[in-house]
Design brief:
elongated, 2 helices
């Protein structure tokens, strides 16, 4: 587990995770899995695509979670 990645759901996080927080967690995950803090130029495209895919998947996960005892999610 990457210790730099924090829990992004209420009640651990005071409100909803921002897009920036979700992307930062995705970047940390890709760095950990790939073993690269910053990829070489020939790996940049696949690295960036992985970050974007994981950002989208994480946002979808957080949008779909029901957390008992947490305040109701805002509509939008």
């Amino acid at each position: 587990m990457c210790r730099s990645i924090k829990t992004l759901r209420p009640p651990v996080l005071a409100g909803e995770a921002t897009e920036e927080e979700i992307r930062a967690a995705a970047l940390q995950f890709v760095r950990k899995v790939s073993g690269f803090r910053a990829p070489a130029a020939h790996n940049r495209e696949v690295f960036d695509r992985a970050v974007e895919d994981i950002t989208a998947a994480t946002a979808q996960l957080l949008d779909g979670l029901e957390v008992r005892g947490a305040p109701a999610r805002r509509a939008g």
